[in-house]
């Protein structure tokens, strides 16, 4: 639970994320991410400008941080897998339309084939380009999660 009634800069039991990171062997970037993603909420207090501090009794251990990052990594892998399945479905639909175009060159081009050229994206876009955009976004998040986990393990 975030403490809002305390000015952490004037309270000796609150540590900057840099100091908390040194105490548990974790980078400041990792602690910032865990607080931002609400994986660490207990003992967090913010200055009036929003800078997070961590109560010394709530500084996680290195192994707790590793467990949280590992869980986040596997959750992100599952999201990438889900997006891949949607992409495979869209590719299959485009392939079907392409095969129809070969079979009937005088017929209209299929909607999925036409939609593959649409580079605009919104969350409702159920086309090949929408699926590839979603995949790209989820893979970037996966890479970030993996980098944080690797960075943590390299510090040991």
Describe the structure in brief.
This protein is mainly alpha-helical.
Describe the protein's architecture and organization.
With 156 residues, the chain is mainly alpha-helical. The chain is built from five helices and three strands. The chain has helices at 17-24, 28-36, 62-103, 111-115, 128-154; strands at 14-16, 44-46, 52-55. The chain has a three-stranded antiparallel sheet with strand order 1-3-2. Helix 3 runs antiparallel to helix 5. The longest helix is centred in the middle third of the chain and has 42 residues, at 62-103. The radius of gyration is 23 Å and the shape is elongated. The mean pLDDT is 90.
Please describe the structure with a list of short key phrases separated by commas or semicolons.
156 residues; 3-stranded antiparallel sheet
What is the topological layout?
Elements: E1 14-16, H1 17-24, H2 28-36, E2 44-46, E3 52-55, H3 62-103, H4 111-115, H5 128-154
Antiparallel strand pairs: 1-3, 2-3
Q: Tell me the strand order in the biggest sheet.
A: 1-3-2
Oligomeric state of the chains in view: single chain
**Number of helical elements:** 5
Query: What's the story with the biggest beta sheet?
Result: 3 strands, antiparallel
């Amino acid at each position: 639970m975030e403490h809002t009634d305390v000015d952490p800069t004037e309270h000796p039991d609150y540590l900057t994320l840099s100091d908390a990171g040194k105490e548990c062997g974790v980078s400041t970037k990792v602690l910032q991410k865990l607080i931002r993603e609400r994986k660490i909420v207990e003992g967090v207090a913010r200055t009036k400008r929003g800078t997070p501090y961590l109560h010394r009794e709530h500084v996680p251990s290195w192994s707790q941080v590793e467990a949280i990052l590992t869980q986040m990594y596997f959750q992100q892998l599952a999201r990438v897998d889900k997006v891949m399945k949607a992409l495979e479905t869209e590719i299959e639909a485009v392939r079907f339309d392409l095969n129809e175009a070969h079979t009937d060159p005088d017929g209209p081009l299929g909607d999925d084939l036409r939609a593959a050229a649409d580079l605009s994206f919104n969350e409702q876009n159920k086309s090949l380009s929408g699926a590839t955009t979603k995949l790209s976004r989820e893979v970037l998040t996966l890479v970030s999660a993996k980098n944080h986990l690797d960075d943590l393990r390299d510090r040991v």
